[in-house]
Amino acid sequence: MSDTQTLFALVAGATETAAIDGISAAGADPALMAHTPSADAEILAYGRPVRAPIVPVSPSGCPTPAVVTRAARERVDFESVVVDAGLAEPTGAPTVDVGAAPGGDVHDPEPVPDAGGIFADARRFGADLPAERLVLAETIPGGTTTAMGVLAALGERRAVSSSLPENPLELKREVVDKGLDASGLARGDLAGQPTDAVRQMGDPVLATVAGLAVGALEAGTDVLLAGGTQLATAGALVRHAGLTADLELATTSFVAADDSADVRALASENDLALTVTDPGFDARDDHPAMAAYLAGEAKEGVGMGGALALADEAGVGMDAVRDAVGDVYDRVTGEAAP
Asked: Would you give the distance in Å from CA 97 to the centre of its chain?
């Protein structure tokens, strides 16, 4: 049965930062990567791509985490909405527009020039949503690098995860340092200035997620940040906006086990109650999707950790979720797995 009091909001957008070689695995080909968020939205809404010309897979063939999120939704039946936070390509999923354009390269002095306006529109929308609990998720290739940029501008820990098995942290730090230089910033210069931090170092998805969270919290709605270090960064933005309300972060065991990400410390330092859910994919390690997740690809994204947490809360066993992952994988790829 659907929990009408819980609303799952997927915030989808793009940043030119994703085009930097070696930054993201969110697409088999850089030219097709721009379609990934649009396809993710369709998989969440319909269970398969309907307009997007691709099935989002990594270069090695690992499918998008949207497969897992949709699988959990098919067992829990939670309501969802997609927020267009700067999509680069059209999607067939119904969307709410917060006036965001795709983000520029983090090397630019202002990759999100209208961060303040995006945040304000999202804040109003978050305050008006008819839900007792808002679950916020993201899909944006390159988003962990822009998240690192925002964390640096805020003066927070610069630890982020990666969609790749080996986290290219040195590359990300080099990119962020160049971005700070281009914006005339030193680490911590924008502490307490969350929209400026996003304007100069972030992406439109972060501006939107933070705005939605602030608006919802101010309206008395419970907020669950569904994701890893990108959503923890959104939590840091909420804290730098001056809100001290209870805020939860739900992520996967894959992110929690990634020492390079250090999501536990990032959550603790920003007073985010952390929930970690293990989908038990090792019980189905013969399945290509679950084997790829176990190998360290696509550790999080499209609210995978939050969706798994919702399934766990609803008493849906992870064995049922794994069965649903197999069903959705077959539907999305058009081929049955072993």
From this structure: 17
